[in-house]
Protein backbone atom coordinates (compact mmCIF):
# COMPACT_ATOMS: atom_id res chain seq x y z
CA UNK A 1 0.00 0.00 0.00
CA UNK A 2 1.26 3.48 -0.91
CA UNK A 3 0.49 6.04 1.80
CA UNK A 4 1.76 9.47 2.86
CA UNK A 5 3.14 9.92 6.38
CA UNK A 6 2.61 13.51 7.54
CA UNK A 7 5.99 14.05 9.12
CA UNK A 8 9.29 15.77 8.56
CA UNK A 9 10.89 13.89 11.47
CA UNK A 10 13.47 11.48 10.04
CA UNK A 11 13.46 9.35 13.23
CA UNK A 12 9.70 8.83 13.05
CA UNK A 13 9.86 8.03 9.32
CA UNK A 14 12.65 5.48 9.76
CA UNK A 15 10.79 3.75 12.59
CA UNK A 16 7.44 3.74 10.79
CA UNK A 17 9.08 2.11 7.74
CA UNK A 18 10.60 -0.58 9.99
CA UNK A 19 7.37 -1.17 11.94
CA UNK A 20 5.04 -1.35 8.95
CA UNK A 21 7.44 -3.39 6.84
CA UNK A 22 7.42 -4.37 3.20
CA UNK A 23 3.71 -4.18 2.45
CA UNK A 24 3.82 -0.38 2.74
CA UNK A 25 5.49 2.30 0.64
CA UNK A 26 5.72 5.34 2.92
CA UNK A 27 6.01 8.77 1.30
CA UNK A 28 7.08 11.67 3.54
CA UNK A 29 5.10 14.95 3.46
CA UNK A 30 8.03 16.61 1.65
CA UNK A 31 8.01 13.90 -1.02
CA UNK A 32 4.26 14.54 -1.39
CA UNK A 33 5.05 18.23 -2.02
CA UNK A 34 4.27 19.65 1.44
CA UNK A 35 7.48 21.24 2.68
CA UNK A 36 6.07 23.85 5.09
CA UNK A 37 5.67 23.11 8.81
CA UNK A 38 2.17 21.72 9.33
CA UNK A 39 0.41 23.74 12.08
CA UNK A 40 -0.07 22.02 15.46
CA UNK A 41 -2.28 24.18 17.68
CA UNK A 42 -4.33 21.56 19.49
CA UNK A 43 -4.22 20.82 23.21
CA UNK A 44 -3.96 17.01 23.01
CA UNK A 45 -1.93 14.50 21.01
CA UNK A 46 -5.13 13.46 19.23
CA UNK A 47 -6.10 17.02 18.24
CA UNK A 48 -2.62 17.70 16.85
CA UNK A 49 -2.47 14.41 15.05
CA UNK A 50 -5.89 15.03 13.46
CA UNK A 51 -4.81 18.53 12.46
CA UNK A 52 -1.72 17.21 10.63
CA UNK A 53 -3.65 14.51 8.75
CA UNK A 54 -6.47 16.92 7.81
CA UNK A 55 -3.96 19.50 6.57
CA UNK A 56 -2.21 16.97 4.37
CA UNK A 57 -5.48 15.52 3.09
CA UNK A 58 -6.75 18.99 2.16
CA UNK A 59 -3.52 19.81 0.31
CA UNK A 60 -2.91 16.50 -1.44
CA UNK A 61 -6.26 14.67 -1.37
CA UNK A 62 -4.52 11.35 -0.70
CA UNK A 63 -4.80 8.71 2.00
CA UNK A 64 -2.33 9.54 4.75
CA UNK A 65 -1.53 9.22 8.42
CA UNK A 66 0.22 11.31 11.04
CA UNK A 67 1.80 10.65 14.42
CA UNK A 68 1.67 13.13 17.27
CA UNK A 69 3.78 11.92 20.13
CA UNK A 70 5.76 13.00 23.13
CA UNK A 71 7.06 12.38 26.60
CA UNK A 72 4.96 12.79 29.77
CA UNK A 73 6.85 13.10 33.06
CA UNK A 74 4.57 12.60 36.08
CA UNK A 75 6.52 14.85 38.49
CA UNK A 76 6.38 17.66 35.89
CA UNK A 77 2.58 17.44 35.67
CA UNK A 78 2.74 15.59 32.33
CA UNK A 79 5.23 18.00 30.69
CA UNK A 80 6.73 18.23 28.13
CA UNK A 81 3.68 16.43 26.62
CA UNK A 82 2.46 18.02 23.40
CA UNK A 83 5.38 20.48 23.62
CA UNK A 84 8.00 17.72 23.52
CA UNK A 85 9.53 18.85 20.21
CA UNK A 86 9.94 22.46 21.42
CA UNK A 87 10.22 22.11 25.20
CA UNK A 88 13.40 24.18 25.53
CA UNK A 89 11.50 27.16 24.02
CA UNK A 90 8.38 26.79 26.18
CA UNK A 91 7.69 30.06 28.03
CA UNK A 92 9.73 31.87 25.37
CA UNK A 93 9.56 31.95 21.60
CA UNK A 94 7.87 28.69 20.58
CA UNK A 95 8.71 29.30 16.94
CA UNK A 96 12.36 28.60 17.74
CA UNK A 97 12.94 24.96 16.94
CA UNK A 98 15.16 23.69 19.70
CA UNK A 99 17.21 20.59 19.22
CA UNK A 100 16.84 17.34 21.11
CA UNK A 101 19.82 18.15 23.35
CA UNK A 102 18.41 21.36 24.82
CA UNK A 103 14.99 19.70 25.31
CA UNK A 104 16.65 16.88 27.28
CA UNK A 105 18.67 19.41 29.31
CA UNK A 106 15.48 21.17 30.36
CA UNK A 107 13.72 17.97 31.47
CA UNK A 108 16.76 16.81 33.46
CA UNK A 109 17.26 20.24 35.02
CA UNK A 110 13.61 20.54 36.13
CA UNK A 111 13.40 17.01 37.49
CA UNK A 112 16.74 17.17 39.28
CA UNK A 113 15.82 20.54 40.86
CA UNK A 114 12.57 19.06 42.20
CA UNK A 115 14.45 16.10 43.59
CA UNK A 116 17.07 18.32 45.21
CA UNK A 117 14.35 20.44 46.87
CA UNK A 118 12.51 17.34 48.12
CA UNK A 119 15.68 15.90 49.65
CA UNK A 120 16.61 19.25 51.21
CA UNK A 121 13.12 19.42 52.77
CA UNK A 122 13.48 15.89 54.15
CA UNK A 123 10.75 14.58 51.84
CA UNK A 124 10.87 11.37 49.86
CA UNK A 125 12.72 11.57 46.51
CA UNK A 126 10.72 12.73 43.50
CA UNK A 127 9.20 9.94 41.41
CA UNK A 128 10.88 9.76 37.99
CA UNK A 129 8.07 7.83 36.29
CA UNK A 130 7.24 8.82 32.72
CA UNK A 131 5.79 7.52 29.50
CA UNK A 132 5.98 8.08 25.78
CA UNK A 133 2.60 8.51 24.13
CA UNK A 134 1.61 8.43 20.49
CA UNK A 135 -1.63 9.11 18.67
CA UNK A 136 -1.81 8.11 15.02
CA UNK A 137 -4.58 9.53 12.81
CA UNK A 138 -5.19 7.55 9.66
CA UNK A 139 -7.13 9.42 7.00
CA UNK A 140 -8.86 7.11 4.53
CA UNK A 141 -11.22 8.69 1.97
CA UNK A 142 -11.27 11.81 4.15
CA UNK A 143 -12.43 9.93 7.28
CA UNK A 144 -10.17 9.96 10.38
CA UNK A 145 -9.40 6.83 12.42
CA UNK A 146 -7.37 7.00 15.65
CA UNK A 147 -4.82 4.56 17.09
CA UNK A 148 -2.97 5.06 20.41
CA UNK A 149 0.12 3.65 22.02
CA UNK A 150 2.04 4.28 25.23
CA UNK A 151 5.28 3.03 26.73
CA UNK A 152 5.98 3.25 30.48
CA UNK A 153 9.37 3.95 32.00
CA UNK A 154 11.49 6.29 34.12
CA UNK A 155 13.73 9.28 33.49
CA UNK A 156 17.43 8.55 33.98
CA UNK A 157 19.89 10.93 35.68
CA UNK A 158 22.05 11.15 32.57
CA UNK A 159 22.10 10.23 28.88
CA UNK A 160 23.18 6.79 27.67
CA UNK A 161 23.16 5.22 24.20
CA UNK A 162 23.28 6.48 20.63
CA UNK A 163 20.22 4.90 19.02
CA UNK A 164 16.72 6.25 18.41
CA UNK A 165 16.08 9.99 18.58
CA UNK A 166 14.62 12.71 20.79
CA UNK A 167 14.40 11.81 24.49
CA UNK A 168 15.50 8.17 24.00
CA UNK A 169 18.89 8.62 25.78
CA UNK A 170 17.18 9.55 29.08
CA UNK A 171 14.17 7.21 28.92
CA UNK A 172 14.51 3.88 30.77
CA UNK A 173 11.66 1.63 29.54
CA UNK A 174 10.21 -0.74 32.16
CA UNK A 175 10.27 -3.52 29.58
CA UNK A 176 14.11 -3.51 29.32
CA UNK A 177 15.45 -2.87 32.84
CA UNK A 178 18.84 -1.19 33.06
CA UNK A 179 18.93 0.12 29.48
CA UNK A 180 17.84 3.39 27.98
CA UNK A 181 15.64 3.47 24.88
CA UNK A 182 18.72 4.70 22.97
CA UNK A 183 20.60 1.52 23.98
CA UNK A 184 18.00 -0.82 22.44
CA UNK A 185 18.25 -2.22 18.94
CA UNK A 186 15.69 -0.84 16.44
CA UNK A 187 13.70 -4.07 16.69
CA UNK A 188 13.70 -3.97 20.49
CA UNK A 189 12.52 -0.36 20.57
CA UNK A 190 9.81 -0.95 17.96
CA UNK A 191 8.53 -4.03 19.82
CA UNK A 192 7.64 -1.97 22.92
CA UNK A 193 7.38 1.63 21.75
CA UNK A 194 4.31 3.87 21.75
CA UNK A 195 4.75 4.27 17.97
CA UNK A 196 5.13 0.52 17.42
CA UNK A 197 1.88 -0.13 19.28
CA UNK A 198 -0.13 2.55 17.50
CA UNK A 199 1.16 1.67 14.02
CA UNK A 200 0.57 -2.07 14.50
CA UNK A 201 -3.04 -1.26 15.49
CA UNK A 202 -3.35 0.84 12.34
CA UNK A 203 -1.90 -1.98 10.18
CA UNK A 204 -4.33 -4.50 11.76
CA UNK A 205 -7.24 -2.15 11.05
CA UNK A 206 -6.21 -1.74 7.40
CA UNK A 207 -5.79 -5.49 7.02
CA UNK A 208 -9.18 -6.26 8.58
CA UNK A 209 -10.86 -3.72 6.28
CA UNK A 210 -8.95 -5.07 3.27
CA UNK A 211 -7.67 -1.56 2.42
CA UNK A 212 -4.86 -1.79 -0.16
P1 LIG B 1 5.69 15.97 17.25
O1 LIG B 1 6.40 15.99 15.94
O2 LIG B 1 5.00 17.22 17.61
O3 LIG B 1 4.83 14.74 17.38
O4 LIG B 1 6.86 15.86 18.33
C1 LIG B 1 7.27 14.67 18.85
C2 LIG B 1 8.45 14.93 19.79
O5 LIG B 1 8.31 14.03 20.90
C3 LIG B 1 9.78 14.57 19.13
O6 LIG B 1 10.39 15.68 18.54
C4 LIG B 1 10.58 14.04 20.31
O7 LIG B 1 11.13 15.12 21.04
C5 LIG B 1 9.53 13.38 21.19
N1 LIG B 1 9.37 11.96 20.82
C6 LIG B 1 8.33 11.37 20.17
N2 LIG B 1 8.55 10.08 19.99
C7 LIG B 1 9.75 9.82 20.50
C8 LIG B 1 10.54 8.64 20.59
O8 LIG B 1 10.19 7.55 20.10
N3 LIG B 1 11.73 8.78 21.22
C9 LIG B 1 12.16 9.95 21.75
N4 LIG B 1 11.48 11.08 21.67
C10 LIG B 1 10.28 11.02 21.05
Provide the descriptors you would attach to this structure in a database record.
212 residues, alpha/beta, Maf protein, six-stranded mixed β-sheet, 6 strands, globular, binds inosinic acid
Structure description:
By secondary structure, the protein is of the alpha/beta class. The chain has a single domain (2-208), classed as Maf protein. It is built from five helices and six strands, in the order βαβαβαβββαα. The chain has a six-stranded mixed β-sheet. Helix 1 links the parallel strand 1 (2-5) and strand 2 (25-28). The radius of gyration is 18 Å and the shape is globular. The mean pLDDT is 93.
Write the layout of secondary structure elements.
Layout lengths: L1 E4 L4 H11 L4 E4 L16 H16 L3 E10 L26 H21 L8 E12 L2 E13 L15 E3 L12 H7 L1 H16 L3
Helix pairs in contact: 1-5, 4-5
Strand content: 15-25%
Strand order of the largest sheet: 2-1-3-4-5-6
- Summed over residues and divided by their number, the pLDDT gives a mean of 93
Number of domains: 1
Helical residues, percent = 25-40%
Structural class: alpha/beta
Question: Using only CA atoms, what is the Rg?
Answer: 18 Å
Number of strands: 6
Summarize the structure.
This protein has 212 residues and is of the alpha/beta class.
Amino acid sequence: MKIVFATGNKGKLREAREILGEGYELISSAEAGVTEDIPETGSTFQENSLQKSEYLYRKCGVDCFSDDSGLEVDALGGAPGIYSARYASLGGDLSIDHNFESNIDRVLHELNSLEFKAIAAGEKPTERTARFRCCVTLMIDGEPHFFDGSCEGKIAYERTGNGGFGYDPIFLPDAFPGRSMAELSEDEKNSISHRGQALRLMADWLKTRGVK
